[in-house]
Specification:
The chain has 191 residues and is α/β, with parallel strands linked by helices. It folds into 2 domains: 36 residues, no CATH class; 141 residues, Rossmann fold. The protein is built from 7 helices and 7 strands; from the N terminus they run ααβαβαβαβαβαββ. The protein starts with 6 loop residues before the first helix and ends in a 5-residue tail after the last strand.
């Protein structure tokens, strides 16, 4: 077997080891073993991949990011949203591990959506994205609960590292703002 097992391979392994522990006899119906395997596979803490929700009002950007992430064996795009309200709804339905959140969205913007999501799901990681590189948006996103802010002009590698939790997190020191992987603003409170 490879390093990544399919659900069928895991179910087969469980059955094999269950039978070997029981001396080759099945004490219950085999469907019980399938149920056990399904329970473990459906539990998000046993998965080896990161579930990502992509939020952007531009369909081309959403599909491009989703296509990029689909090539990564440890990442799974679980949904896409085109506005902040839909992002909140999908977060409740799909329970992603990471949300890529565009800042400028119609209706409820990415900052307000991040604030609402963070209030309900404080452990969920939100990464802010924007084509604008001003200093106010990264600070506002971080204040709303985002762990990172990237410019859409950053590299694919920077985006993948942020999703995987690598690199510089946006919560290094109070008053510090990270933009494109660089510390760009340190307020007097940070000194």
């Amino acid at each position: 077997m490879s390093d990544t097992w399919s659900p069928q391979e895991i179910a087969t392994w469980i059955k094999k080891h269950y039978l070997s522990l029981r001396g080759g006899t099945v004490l219950g119906p085999v469907t019980f073993l399938d149920d056990v395997a399904s329970t473990y596979l459906d539990n998000r803490y046993w998965r080896q991949w990161t579930r990502v929700l992509v939020v952007d009002d531009h369909a081309l950007v959403r599909r491009g990011v989703a296509t990029l992430l689909a090539r990564e064996p440890d990442l799974e795009v679980v949904g896409e949203a085109d506005n902040g309200q839909r992002a909140i709804e999908l977060t409740r339905q799909l329970t992603p591990d990471v949300i890529l959140m565009d800042v400028s969205l119609p209706g409820m913007n990415g900052i307000d959506a991040t604030r609402a999501i963070h209030a309900e799901f404080p452990a969920l990681r939100v990464i802010g994205l924007s084509m604008f590189e001003n200093l106010e948006q990264p600070a506002a996103m971080r204040e709303a609960g985002a762990v990172r802010y990237l410019s859409k002009s950053d590299s694919a590698e920077a985006l993948l590292a942020a999703i995987r939790g690598g690199g510089e997190s946006g919560r290094t020191r109070p008053g510090t703002t990270i933009l494109g992987g660089q510390i760009v603003l340190r307020t007097p409170e940070a000194s």
